[in-house]
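hiii so um. not sure if this is the right channel but i have a protein structure encoded as tokens and i wanna go backwards to a sequence. like what aa goes where. can anyone help
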């Protein structure tokens, strides 16, 4: 394996980018906009343009774990991991059709507040607490660990916890002053840098391979196939429906740190167009992250740690200077996702808990509380991140735990929107029983290895159990009022009413045509790589 050398110029570019972008955007937000109310700080004043929404959606998902994990998984297991990238395009169509209109109509700050309107205050508190736990100990900690793992290889004299601490501090302070507006503005630049950096590395990797035919002969056919046997240990094809789809609905439709920029959309049309743009931007990840990882097998056959594929490609193939830009791209991915997570956690804590306990607090006091919470969450995630090293792999930590604990949430939202019979008692019971049960199953299966079941199949099993709890409890408990259900559940009249409104729009502004176009692109890619 080539020796990775980081020059002074590379480090200077990295530092200049990170500090420069934070200072410029931070100064703009603090001195020009002066967002002093909760709607301004947590939701950008509900005035976010669709382009910013789409780019911010994309960047929030492109965390350090994605930048590290996708090429690494491509190197180890082939392109099957791309099922996690194309499926969100379809899930986002589902999101803008059935979820987003209710979110915006209810004018909620958080996804848990929707559960309060549909079910009860208890359901909101349980889900909000769950999201806080997930944001800090899963999302933020994983992003910190992934970035620190790469930086430790490039700078071996720097300890893991030191990199984690510095990264968390930079992201936490930026959000402390800026709020969601600062996240979205900075994400615009980050998205362009990530796309450009990933494209450069992929082109250089393609150029290093002698020819496409030679490459295909050098790897096994299954490594270039999205569909794996049902017995596959990593990505069995039924698991796409029983696991990847379920976790995807949670992540793209209910996870606060992702959907928060859509909640701040200027209008429903802007929220929809931005979400579709994010779905479109997910598709090139096959070519700029995953395939280069597969190709790296022909370049570095003796690589011991697959998670080092991306930095290895960047520092082996790129000249000095461009390496610094790639470090900046990695830093952009890590910091942007962290900033979104910290802002999301602060919103959940302030609007779902503090405001409930102290309903008379002023807008300014709530914003100050959110800022203080940001610093607290920054320390918690930084303290937990080094503990991820105790697990077999970052990928296993992320995907397996989400597969076990997210099904109750998906059941509540999907059945709650489409089934009028779901009750408040059933929602509370499903969350209160399903989440601990999933966490226990994860510990028994993935940590203690008491029994063996592929985690994507376990996700389907947990979804079935959660649905049985929800439906069974709903059938024997008091039904919700008609007024509550009518405002929060979908029916065919919504579609008809919307169709009348869409008739007055040009076809290119009609989200249904836009969704159909995105779906066609997805199907072409999937069928080609089937």
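sure thing!! here u go:
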């Amino acid at each position: 394996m080539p020796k990775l050398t980081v020059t002074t110029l590379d480090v200077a570019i990295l530092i200049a980018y990170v500090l420069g972008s934070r200072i410029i955007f931070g100064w703009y937000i603090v001195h020009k906009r002066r967002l002093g109310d909760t709607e301004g700080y947590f939701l950008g004043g509900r005035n976010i343009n669709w382009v910013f929404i789409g780019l911010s959606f994309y960047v929030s998902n492109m965390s350090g774990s994605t930048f590290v994990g996708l090429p690494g998984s491509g190197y180890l297991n082939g392109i099957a991991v791309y099922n996690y990238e194309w499926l969100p395009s379809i899930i986002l169509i589902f999101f803008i059709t059935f979820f987003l209109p209710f979110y915006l109509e209810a004018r909620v700050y958080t996804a848990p507040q929707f559960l309060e309107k549909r079910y009860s205050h208890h359901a909101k508190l349980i889900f909000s607490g769950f999201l806080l736990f997930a944001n800090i100990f899963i999302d933020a900690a994983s992003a910190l660990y992934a970035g620190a793992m790469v930086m430790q290889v490039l700078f071996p004299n720097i300890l893991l916890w030191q990199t984690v601490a510095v990264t968390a501090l930079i992201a936490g302070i930026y959000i402390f002053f800026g709020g969601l507006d600062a996240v979205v503005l900075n994400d615009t630049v980050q998205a362009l840098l990530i796309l450009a950096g990933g494209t450069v590395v992929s082109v250089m990797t393609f150029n290093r391979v002698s020819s496409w035919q030679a490459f295909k002969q050098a790897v096994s056919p299954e490594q270039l196939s999205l569909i794996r046997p049902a017995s596959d240990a990593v990505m069995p094809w039924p698991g796409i429906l029983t696991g990847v789809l379920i976790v995807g609905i949670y992540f793209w439709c209910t996870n606060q740190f992702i959907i928060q920029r859509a909640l701040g959309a200027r209008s429903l049309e802007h929220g929809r167009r931005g979400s579709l743009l994010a779905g479109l931007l997910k598709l090139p990840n096959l070519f700029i992250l995953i395939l280069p990882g597969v190709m790296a097998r022909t370049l570095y056959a003796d690589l011991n740690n697959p998670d080092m594929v991306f930095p290895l490609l960047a520092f082996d193939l790129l000249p000095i200077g461009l390496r610094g830009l790639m470090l900046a791209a990695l830093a952009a991915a890590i910091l942007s996702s962290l900033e979104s997570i910290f802002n999301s956690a602060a919103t959940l804590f302030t609007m779902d808990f503090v405001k409930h306990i102290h309903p008379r607090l002023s807008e300014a006091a709530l914003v100050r509380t959110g800022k203080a919470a940001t610093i607290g969450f920054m320390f918690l995630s930084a303290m937990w991140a080094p503990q991820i090293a105790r697990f077999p792999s970052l990928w296993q930590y992320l995907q397996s735990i989400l597969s076990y604990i997210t099904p109750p949430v998906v059941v509540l939202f999907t059945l709650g929107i489409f089934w009028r019979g779901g009750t408040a008692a059933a929602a509370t019971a499903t969350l209160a029983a399903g989440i601990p049960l999933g966490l226990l199953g994860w510990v028994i299966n993935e940590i203690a290895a008491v029994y063996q079941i592929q985690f994507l199949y376990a996700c389907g099993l947990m979804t079935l159990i959660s649905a049985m709890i929800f439906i069974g409890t709903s059938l024997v408990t008091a039904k919700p009022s008609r007024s509550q259900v009518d405002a929060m559940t979908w029916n065919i009249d919504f579609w008809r009413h919307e169709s009348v409104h869409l008739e007055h729009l040009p076809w290119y502004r009609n989200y249904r045509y836009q969704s159909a176009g995105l779906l066609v692109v997805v199907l072409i890619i999937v069928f080609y790589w089937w």
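oh and The two ends are 32 Å apart (CA to CA).
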